[in-house]
């Protein structure tokens, strides 16, 4: 259980790196074959057709840009912060988003999302009527999505505190704000192929 709470203290630097890269590659394949895109670190969008190598590029863009932003912050706070430590933190934290991607790709979730989309397109936002199965699916999916985003931030904070050798509570707030602002900016810039 401790490996899910703080994997940065249990696994070596190499193991974290290869684990993150391996799961990133699998996420890129899922993204490609299910026509989903991890749009920034906090959002998965539907109907984004991409080949597997474009999916790898798009995911790499997110991972490297987030790592660079957090590395600059880490260096400003503690000048011995290493890029590989920050990159490993970003790789491992994104595993929560990869689970979200996998859940979004499930046919039962896709069917519920399409049903909602069709209802909204047909009747607008005024109380769309859905089957109980679709409502239940979306309810569970929503709870899991929020939980995974919280877990993403938890891993990011725990890892960055170790990478920066930080004891400050302000750093936690700054990390959350930095990642949120940066990923919102990525969505506006839309650098994805």
TrEMBL record:
Keywords: Membrane, Transmembrane, Transmembrane helix
Organism, scientific name: Sphingobacterium litopenaei
Protein name: Yip1 domain-containing protein
The keyword Membrane belongs to this UniProt entry's keyword annotation: yes
Segments traversing the membrane: 16-40, 52-74, 86-116, 136-163, 170-189
């Amino acid at each position: 259980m401790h490996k899910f709470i703080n994997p940065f203290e249990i696994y070596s630097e190499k193991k974290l790196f290869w684990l993150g890269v391996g799961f990133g590659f699998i996420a890129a394949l899922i993204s490609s074959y299910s026509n989903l895109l991890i749009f920034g670190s906090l959002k998965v969008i539907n109907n984004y057709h991409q080949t597997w190598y474009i999916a790898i590029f798009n995911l790499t863009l997110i991972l490297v840009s987030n790592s660079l932003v957090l590395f600059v912050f880490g260096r400003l706070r503690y000048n011995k912060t290493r890029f590989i430590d920050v990159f490993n933190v970003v790789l491992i934290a994104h595993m929560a988003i990869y689970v979200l991607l996998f859940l979004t790709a499930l046919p039962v979730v896709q069917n519920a999302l399409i049903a909602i989309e069709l209802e909204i397109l047909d009747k607008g936002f005024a109380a769309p009527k859905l089957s109980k199965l679709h409502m239940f699916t979306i309810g569970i999916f929503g709870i899991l999505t929020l939980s995974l985003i919280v877990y993403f931030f938890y891993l990011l904070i725990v890892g960055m505190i170790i990478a920066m050798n930080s004891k400050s509570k302000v750093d936690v707030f700054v990390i959350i704000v930095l990642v949120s602002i940066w990923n919102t900016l990525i969505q506006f810039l839309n650098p994805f192929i």
